[in-house]
Each structure stands twice: as C-alpha cells, then as structure tokens.
Design a protein that fits this description.
This protein has 311 residues and is α+β, with helices and mostly antiparallel strands. Helices cover 30% and strands 34% of the residues.
Length: 311
C-alpha cells in the first residue's frame, strides 16, 4: 500500500538516562493530533538504530521524515540519507523536533525544545530550504578510506573532549549549563594543547593549539557566524592561552562572544587540510569519533539536503 505524500514518517529518539524520557513525545503526539497531521512513528532503541530506522522510512516511501532528537540523531539521519542516490534524496524533506542532549542545529533555526507547538506549526507549513553539509574524509586504523557528513561542526582537540564529557554528564545531570560546568572542571586535569599542522586557504599553521572548530553551522558557539547555506566553512583556531585567558575564553563561549577572545583566530574557507593533529580527539556534531590516521580533509557540499525551516 502506497504511503500518502502528506504523511510524515517520524523517528522518535528518547533521551538516554533522563527520567520521564517519554514526556516530550507525549507533547509532540498531542500537538500532532490537534493539528490533524498524518504520521507514523518508530522509536530508536539506541544510537546505532537511528540510521537503520531512517533507511526503513526512506525505503517505505515517506517523503517527509521528522527526527525527534538531538544533533547526533540528526547527524545519523543525514548520513543515512546521503547514502541514497541523488534522485531519492531530492524527493525527501528532513525536519527536526529538538529532543536531544545537545540541540544546537535546531536552536540555530529557532526550534526550541520547550516550544513543541510552535515547532510543529512551522513544520506543517512545509517551508523547505536546501542546506549544505560539511564532510570529513579520513583513513581509519584499518587503512580504509572513510567519510562522515556533519550539519554543525567538527571539533578537534579540547572542545571535542569537553563535548563528549558534556554529553555523558548531561545524561546524568539533565542540565545543559551544569553539565558544561562539570565537564569544564573535569577538563582541568586533561591535556590542554596539541601539535597541529593545518592548511587553511593559503595559510599553513604549524604550532601547538588548544582546539579547532570547523563549522558549517554555529559550532556550539565557536563558529557563530557560520551558516549552512553559503557553501563555506568557518574555522576557529584557538592558540594555547594562559589560565586566566582560558577562563575568560570559556565565559565568552557561554555568552556567545567567542570570536572576541584574543587567542581565537577565525578563518573562512571551502576546505581544511589537517596534515597532523597528534593525540587530538575529533568530534562530529557533538559525538566523539575514532581519531583518524594520518592526514584528513574537511570540505563542504553545497545544497544537498532538503530541510524544513521556520516560517
């Protein structure tokens, strides 16, 4: 039986480790029913099931797929969609209802977790925009050529480690701000600088840095001027500051003024080549990945995903 073109396929991704984790879904379901939206939904059991369930929705003919989840779930869905042929991708529209540990990409579009009704009102209007995806191309420990797409950013170094800790602590603490503060305290005992060899445009940077963020989106505050529709990547390279400057830098990050810090060096480019970044962790859309082996490249693919945006 064919799926109606107007029927949504919804993938609900519960928050891990947070009490009353289905409360948000009840709000979503109630708002959908009140607006007479036709939909079918499936629920992910864990992070590994998101791509499988997204593929199932695609192959069952759903043209509007809504992810009720955070940045990582949205990242998994996008990477699944990018494995399909272009003619299939072009017929599918992706949307998000924020329900994650980190919802920065949804927040960029002003979709808020505490305002489900407004989000669904916007999604119902079906305003579509083609958006860019960043892509990291690397070699894994088995010598295999790999790639991974991202909506928001790639973090290399300290912030990747903090984002990983923040995700773990927020699943326990439930508070975005508290989890960041706890992660910051824990990071005092971690490595704070990394030796890198990076090419950005015509500049070659060989020195020790604290962290680097390459963003197609706002990059959790580190690339605040990046937008996912101009075909470019914003890069924030942070040289190793003194302790007092480090504390000031985190304050500017939290308050949205990260680029004002004297140790932050911003760039805009189409490609970043990381020739060396010894021992530096790499995070993609807030999730830690295995450290690539040798050189890796990060670029942007322009207007490859149909995305539902606010009115």
């Amino acid at each position: 039986m064919a799926i109606e073109a107007s029927r949504w396929g919804i993938l609900y991704c519960p928050k891990k480790g947070i009490n009353r984790k289905h409360k948000q879904w009840e709000k979503v379901r109630r708002a959908l029913d009140e607006r007479g939206v036709l939909y079918d939904f499936v629920q992910s059991e864990n992070a590994d099931s998101v791509e499988r369930l997204t593929r199932m929705l695609i192959h069952n003919g759903y043209k509007t797929i809504i992810i009720v989840g955070g940045d990582s779930a949205l990242n998994d869905a996008v990477n699944c969609l990018m494995k399909e042929e272009k003619k299939v991708r072009d017929e599918i529209v992706l949307g998000v209802i924020p329900n994650g540990v980190v919802n920065d990409f949804a927040r960029f579009w002003n979709f808020k977790e505490n305002n489900v009704a407004q989000t669904i009102d916007w999604l119902v209007k079906h305003r579509v925009r083609k958006i860019d995806l960043g892509c990291i191309r690397y070699t894994n420990k088995k010598g295999e050529k790999c790639h991974r797409y991202f909506l928001n950013c790639v973090n290399i170094g300290l912030i990747a480690d903090i984002m990983n800790l923040r995700r773990q602590t927020r699943s326990l603490l439930g508070s975005r701000t508290l989890s960041f503060v706890v992660s910051l305290v824990i990071m005092i005992f971690h490595r704070l600088d990394y030796k890198v060899d990076v090419k950005i445009n015509s500049d070659v940077i060989k020195r020790r840095v604290m962290t680097m963020c390459i963003g197609s989106g706002p990059g959790y505050g580190q690339t605040p001027n990046a937008v996912p529709y101009n075909g470019l990547l914003d890069v924030s390279l942070v040289y190793h500051p003194e302790v007092i400057q480090l504390l000031g830098g985190f304050w500017l990050l939290v308050t949205g003024r990260f680029l004002n810090h004297r140790c932050v060096h911003p760039y805009r480019t189409r490609e970043v080549i990381v020739r060396e970044a010894k021992h530096a962790m790499v995070g993609i859309d807030g999730r830690l990945m295995r450290t690539p082996v040798g050189e890796y490249r990060i670029n942007v693919e322009q207007e490859v995903i149909n995305f539902l945006i606010p009115d």
